[in-house]
Design goal:
Shape: globular
Strand content: 25-35%
Helix content: 10-25%
Number of domains: 1
Largest sheet: 7 strands, mixed
Radius of gyration: 17 Å
Oligomer: single chain
CATH topology: Rossmann fold
Number of strands: 10
CATH architecture: 3-Layer(aba) Sandwich
Number of helices: 3
Structural class: alpha/beta
Bound molecules: guanosine-5'-monophosphate, magnesium ion
CATH class: Alpha Beta
C-alpha cells in the first residue's frame, strides 16, 4: 500500500506503549497541579489540551483516551511546512488560539519538535493569557541544532535529523494515516 516507504522507525506497538507511558506522566503532573487549585474551582473545567493541527491529530486522539481526567480540547493550527516542503519555512498561526486559558492547566501537544518555532510561537501567545500551568509535549524530538530553546515536558521518542511521516505526520498532505513512524525513500521526495 505504501511502496515509497524506506524503513520504519517506530512500530504501532512501540508507539502505543510509549503513548501509555506519556499518559501516566501527564496524569501524575495534572494530579499535582489540580491539588494546588482553590477548592471553589473543583467543578470547573480546569484542563485544556491544545493539539497543534494537523500533525498532532493522531497522537492526541490516542493520548487523550489514556487520560482519565476531565478535560476539554482547544484546537489550533500552525503551518511551517507548506506543500511539498521538507524544511521549516517559518511558523505561522493559521487559526486563533482558544481565549479562555486564564487560570487553566494547559497542555500543548504537537507531532514533532524540529526548529522549535511552532511551540515557541504557541507558548508565547498562551503565556499572555496567564494560565495556571503550561506544559508542552511532542511525540518526536528531532535531534537538530536548535536556535530556539523550547523545553518539552513530554517527549515520545528522540529521532535523528531525518524527515519522517506517518502517525499524523505528512509529506505534501499524504501518509498521515500510516500507522507507523517511517522514513520515505529518496524517490518519493523529488525536491530533496
Ligand atoms: P518546528 O516549528 O519545530 O520547526 O517544526 C514543527 C513542525 O514542523 C511540526 O509541527 C511538523 O508539522 C513539521 N515537521 C518538522 N519536522 C518534520 C518531519 O520530519 N516530518 C514532517 N512530516 N513534518 C515535520
Ligand atoms: Mg505541525
Amino acid at each position: 500500500m505504501f511502496p515509497e516507504i524506506e524503513r520504519t522507525l517506530f512500530t504501532k506497538h512501540q508507539i502505543a506503549t510509549r503513548v501509555q507511558e506519556l499518559a501516566q506522566e501527564i496524569v501524575r503532573d495534572l494530579e499535582t497541579d489540580l491539588a494546588k487549585d482553590d477548592h471553589s474551582l473543583q467543578d470547573e473545567n480546569r484542563v485544556i489540551i491544545i493539539p497543534i493541527m494537523t500533525g498532532a491529530m493522531i497522537f492526541v486522539a490516542d493520548l487523550i483516551r489514556e487520560l482519565p481526567v476531565k478535560l476539554s480540547l482547544g484546537l489550533t493550527s500552525v503551518r511551517s511546512y507548506p506543500g511539498a516542503s521538507i524544511s521549516s519555512k517559518g511558523a505561522h498561526l493559521e487559526s486563533d488560539l482558544p481565549d479562555n486559558l486564564t487560570g487553566k492547566h494547559i497542555i500543548v501537544l504537537d507531532d514533532i519538535l524540529d526548529s522549535g518555532q511552532t511551540l515557541a510561537l504557541v507558548k508565547a501567545i498562551i503565556l499572555k493569557q496567564k494560565p495556571a500551568s503550561l506544559r508542552l509535549g511532542v511525540m518526536l524530538d528531532k535531534q537538530t541544532p536548535r536556535t530556539i530553546d523550547v523545553k518539552c515536558d513530554y517527549v515520545g521518542f528522540q529521532i535523528p535529523d531525518e524527515f519522517v511521516v506517518g502517525y499524523g505526520l505528512d509529506y505534501d498532505g499524504y501518509y498521515r494515516n500510516h500507522p507507523e513512524i517511517v522514513i520515505l525513500n529518496q524517490a518519493a521526495i523529488p525536491k530533496r
